[in-house]
Inverse folding.
């Protein structure tokens, strides 16, 4: 059942990853996509998504920087952020929580896992 | 008592002697015993006439048969004198004397007197039954005063007759006063009333007794009442005490449960800390001390668990579940637990499972395991040499039910007969001198008995001191439906083979012999290396199979080994060794043996080994039964699954087994930590919430020894909301999966963790052509090289079209990646290169391009590590893998296209006026502003066919920008298209 009251922002510079996430989530949520951190911060400030899926390694601002910027802004502070991380990077996963993320998903994605983790952390609009 | 005076006055003539006077109350009477005193004396005529007439009447009366004794007495008032005027024949006979002695004799014979009545004359008879005390003196006085008036006196005497017998006499007399003479005359008669009086006496006695009894009864009744009251008070007290006791017992059980739980935490702390310290550089002595602390802590934990179990059993709270399982698995599991201890003590452990034991039964495997563990650990405790046998045999089987008899026998110190009776009672330990060594709560056997009782079974022991003990238990089991595929497949060809078993005589050899017999081998036995040599060179040769226990004494002889090696060259030679005994292993190596089994020999493993060596294909995988959605099988992959819930454990294990994973199980964190130390696993799947040591804690401990790359840990949890992922990550858990999981999810998570290290092969490929390699050989399907199309489509919810689109984009986007990478490397921008490789790796994973994934991954690592040379070598294979993906993708496109054409031959086109599109274009503009890929794409797709031919290029461009999520660029094109329409 599509929840049009909830918007998920996907932030990832790798189009293929975005494609997979979009296909996974499009029937359940309204989606927004940005390919870089700067646009993500802009989008979050104006559209107030209910949850952000945030890639870590991106050109320009990386995911952690984006997360810290979002957490510093009172308007976006409360948006739950789930990081997208490679499954073999322990240091990244630890840092996800340190900088304010609520969870992480690993690449390659398991659709069910992605959905369950989003449902777990989603704050309804 | 009554006054006797008057009676004597009436009845008895007064005696003149003093003796007589003692009997007269007034003491004044003078009685003389003679007749005719009045008639002879000077008295009135009327008196004399009266006496004459009365005596005459009496005399004539005496001649009748009426049994009375008449008499006539007189009393002179003035002189107070009394005498008999007449005492007849009968009176004399009764007193046995003459008439002159009658009065004196009678007087002497009287023992007791009773006067019952006095009445006026003619007032009727006196009934002796209504006797009443009579106040005689008053009546007599009255008589005297009133002169000639007559009255009736009645009295009774108890007398002792001259013959010694006791008699009662009733006296009835009429008294007449003759006033002028001052004389009173009594004319009366005596009647013998002995019988009546005795009856009367008896009645009185009975009445008295009755009265006494009644009183006693009343008293008893009162006492009884008092006792009843006391009793009811006592019952109340007992009831209250019972309630208190129940409450106390509940409280005790709860307390035990709580305290056991509370003790566990610090215990885990101790054990964990020991492990932590033990990883530091320590002196051997410090290590040894820590080892002692740790093993003490672990055994203490075992005791606490015992107590907890026992308190649960007492409170009736021990859960008992029913699930189907293979008894062989349980027994083999139990034997695994004790391997280390068995090998430390250099004992033999033998599993003796009868071939008729059903494959699959329904009961609680955990509890069965618990009983076997208790019994085996007991056996181990008391056995210093020889063997321990864990076995099971069916007593009755009828298809749906089986009664199985389990036993654990040892060659230990045995139990004295006196101890056998209460062995299974709580807190009982066989006493000295063993007690000091044995330790334990003494609850193990009590718990075992309780569990066996819960299984509707019985437990007993047979033992001979100094020889050993055998504990038996018997219980009914339901047989589960067995899948024929689960049964061990035994090739028929074994029937043509001969086998030699070289082992010392004992249960172990018997079991081996029985197994080989069952499988069809013709079996010969040798008890030494020498004997084996003889048989192998004898007339029975050749032997296709040799199974030899390396603990045969003469195998220490190098000469014998050389000969054996030479003679066994043509045979399949399998050695059996004890774990941890180096020299046995060395002997096997020296004999040139390549297949070795560790004791206890497990049936399934032995069969598999033999089959493998004989060249029979391994058991067909159960792919047909439940094909893995991912279509892959894991090769040489050993996974430990840790789960306290039996069903979940079973499910998880089965899923993994079906995918070819070699699964081992643990029931809690402690078991997991221990197993990890002894066995090399490729991954651990661990439940987060478990008793004893939870998944997070266990992972933390495991991480002290193994890095997350060496041993990936995947957490399992049923509570997505409650799980603390930060804690998981901190504990070093690599990934997690939510329960209930399906096979696909489980295998995907596992594959993600293992993919880079393990060979995973598609089911259609024969095993031997796909040796394990560092890169997955697999997913490359033959028709679409470099891609696992099925998985890719499944990941995208089953749409081929979408998968094709994504593939196409991927190939296009990264078409020049190797050039870009080279450029970055030339500028020594390793970080940039790593980022690029990382992005290819992630994308490759998501489009299920395993070769590319692995290649890009290796490349990424090399870039992060700035290893120029390695990057140079890794780049070409990455490029090749990429090209392969593109080639596969193109093939896939063609495939899709063809399918689409056949499915949908007609393609309609329509036209519309651009102005009508403006509202739709505004909506598209909004959705582009919202970075919304789905709505943007939908709207663009709706608008595009309605646009004129001239705008089609722009529309294609617009669609492409949307597809690439470049919404700003898309917006620019759209605005350009809208401008002329709006003006």
């Amino acid at each position: 059942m599509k929840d049009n009251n909830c918007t998920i922002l996907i932030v990832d510079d790798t189009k293929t990853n975005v494609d997979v996430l979009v296909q996974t989530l499009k029937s359940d949520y309204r989606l927004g996509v940005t390919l870089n951190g700067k646009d993500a911060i802009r989008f979050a400030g104006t559209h107030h998504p209910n949850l952000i899926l945030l890639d870590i390694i991106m050109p320009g601002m990386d995911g952690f920087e984006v997360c810290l910027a979002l957490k510093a802004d009172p308007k976006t502070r409360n948006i739950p952020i789930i990081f997208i991380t490679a499954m073999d990077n322990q240091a990244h996963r630890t840092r996800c929580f340190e900088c304010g993320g609520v969870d992480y998903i690993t690449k390659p994605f398991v659709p069910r896992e992605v959905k369950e983790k989003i449902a777990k952390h989603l704050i309804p609009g | 008592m009554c006054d006797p005076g008057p009676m004597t006055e009436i009845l008895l003539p007064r005696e003149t002697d003093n003796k007589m006077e003692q009997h007269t109350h007034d003491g004044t009477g003078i009685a003389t015993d003679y007749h005719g005193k009045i008639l002879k004396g000077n008295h009135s005529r009327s008196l004399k006439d009266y006496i004459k007439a009365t005596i005459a009447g009496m005399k004539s009366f005496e001649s009748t048969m009426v049994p009375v004794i008449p008499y006539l007495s007189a009393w002179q008032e003035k002189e107070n004198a009394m005498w008999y005027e007449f005492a007849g024949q009968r009176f004399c006979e009764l007193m046995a004397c003459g008439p002159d002695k009658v009065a004196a004799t009678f007087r002497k014979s009287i023992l007791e007197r009773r006067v019952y009545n006095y009445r006026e004359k003619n007032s009727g008879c006196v009934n002796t039954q209504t006797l009443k005390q009579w106040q005689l003196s008053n009546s007599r006085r009255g008589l005297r005063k009133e002169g000639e008036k007559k009255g009736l006196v009645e009295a009774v005497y108890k007398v002792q007759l001259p013959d010694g017998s006791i008699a009662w006499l009733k006296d009835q007399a009429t008294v007449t006063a003759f006033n002028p003479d001052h004389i009173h005359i009594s004319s009366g008669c005596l009647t013998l009333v002995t019988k009546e009086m005795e009856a009367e006496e008896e009645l009185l006695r009975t009445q008295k007794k009755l009265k006494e009894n009644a009183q006693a009864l009343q008293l008893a009744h009162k006492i009884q009442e008092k006792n009843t009251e006391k009793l009811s008070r006592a019952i109340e007290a007992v009831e209250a005490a019972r309630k208190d006791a129940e409450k106390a017992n509940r409280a005790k059980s709860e307390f035990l449960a709580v305290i056991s739980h509370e003790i566990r935490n610090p215990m885990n702390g101790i054990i964990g800390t020991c492990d932590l310290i033990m990883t530091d550089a320590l002196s051997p002595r410090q290590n040894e001390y820590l080892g002692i602390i740790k093993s003490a802590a672990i055994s203490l934990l075992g005791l606490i668990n015992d107590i907890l179990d026992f308190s649960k059993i007492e409170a009736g709270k021990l859960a008992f579940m029913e699930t189907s399982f293979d008894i062989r698995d349980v027994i083999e599991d139990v034997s695994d637990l004790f391997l280390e201890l068995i090998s430390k003590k250099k004992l033999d452990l033998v599993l003796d499972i009868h071939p008729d034991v059903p494959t699959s039964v329904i009961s609680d495997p955990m509890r069965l395991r618990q009983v076997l563990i208790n019994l085996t650990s007991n056996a181990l405790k008391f056995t210093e040499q020889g063997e321990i046998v864990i076995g099971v045999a069916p007593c009755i089987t009828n298809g749906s039910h089986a009664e199985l008899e389990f036993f654990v026998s040892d060659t230990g110190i045995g139990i004295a007969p006196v101890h056998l009776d209460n062995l299974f009672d709580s807190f009982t330990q066989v006493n000295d001198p063993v007690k000091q060594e044995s330790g334990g709560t003494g609850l193990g056997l009590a718990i075992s008995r309780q569990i066996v009782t819960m299984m509707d079974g019985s437990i007993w022991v047979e033992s001979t001191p100094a020889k050993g003990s055998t504990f038996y238990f018997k219980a009914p089991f339901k047989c589960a439906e067995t899948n024929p595929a689960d049964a061990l497949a035994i090739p028929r060809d074994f029937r043509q083979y001969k086998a030699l078993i070289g082992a010392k005589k004992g249960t172990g050899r018997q079991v081996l012999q029985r197994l080989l017999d069952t499988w069809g081998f013709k079996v010969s036995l040798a008890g030494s290396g020498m004997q084996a040599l003889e048989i192998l060179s004898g007339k029975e040769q050749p032997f296709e199979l040799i199974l030899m226990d390396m603990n045969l004494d003469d195998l220490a002889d190098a000469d014998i080994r050389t000969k054996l090696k030479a003679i066994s060259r043509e045979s399949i030679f399998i050695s059996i060794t004890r774990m941890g005994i180096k020299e046995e292993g060395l002997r096997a190596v020296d004999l040139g043996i390549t297949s070795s089994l560790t004791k206890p020999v497990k049936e399934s493993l032995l069969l598999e080994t033999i089959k493998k060596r004989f060249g029979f294909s391994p058991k067909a995988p159960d792919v047909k039964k439940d094909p893995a959605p991912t279509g892959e099988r894991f090769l040489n992959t050993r996974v430990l699954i840790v789960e306290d819930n039996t069903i979940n454990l079973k499910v998880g294990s089965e899923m993994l087994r079906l995918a070819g994973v070699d699964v081992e199980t643990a029931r809690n964190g402690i078991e997991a930590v221990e197993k990890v130390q002894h066995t090399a696993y490729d991954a651990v799947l661990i439940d987060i919430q478990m008793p004893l040591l939870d998944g997070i804690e266990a992972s933390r401990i495991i991480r002290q020894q193994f890095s997350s790359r060496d041993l990936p840990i995947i957490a399992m949890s049923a509570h997505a909301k409650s799980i603390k992922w930060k804690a998981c990550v901190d504990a070093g858990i690599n990934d997690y999966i939510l329960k209930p999981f399906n096979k696909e999810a489980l295998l995907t998570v596992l594959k993600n963790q293992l993919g880079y290290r393990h060979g995973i092969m598609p089911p259609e490929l024969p095993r031997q052509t796909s040796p394990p390699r560092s890169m997955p050989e697999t997913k490359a399907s033959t028709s679409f090289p470099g891609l696992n199309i099925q998985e890719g489509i499944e990941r995208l919810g089953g749409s081929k079209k979408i998968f094709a689109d994504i593939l196409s984009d991927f190939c296009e986007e990264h078409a020049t990646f190797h050039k870009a990478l080279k450029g970055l490397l030339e500028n020594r921008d390793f970080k940039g290169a790593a980022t690029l490789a990382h992005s290819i790796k992630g994308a490759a994973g998501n489009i299920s391009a395993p070769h590319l994934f692995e290649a890009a991954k290796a490349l990424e690592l090399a870039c992060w590590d700035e290893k120029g040379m390695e990057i140079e070598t890794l780049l070409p294979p990455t490029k090749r893998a990429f090209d392969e993906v593109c080639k596969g993708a193109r093939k896939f496109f063609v495939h899709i296209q063809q399918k689409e054409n056949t499915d949908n031959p007609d393609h309609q086109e329509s036209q519309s006026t651009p102005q009508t599109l403006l509202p739709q274009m505004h909506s598209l503009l909004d959705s582009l502003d919202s970075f919304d890929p789905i709505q943007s794409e939908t709207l663009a797709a709706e608008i595009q066919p309605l646009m004129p031919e001239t705008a089609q290029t722009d529309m294609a461009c617009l669609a492409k920008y949307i597809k690439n999520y470049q919404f700003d660029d898309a917006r620019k094109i759209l605005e350009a298209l809208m401008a002329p329409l709006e003006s």
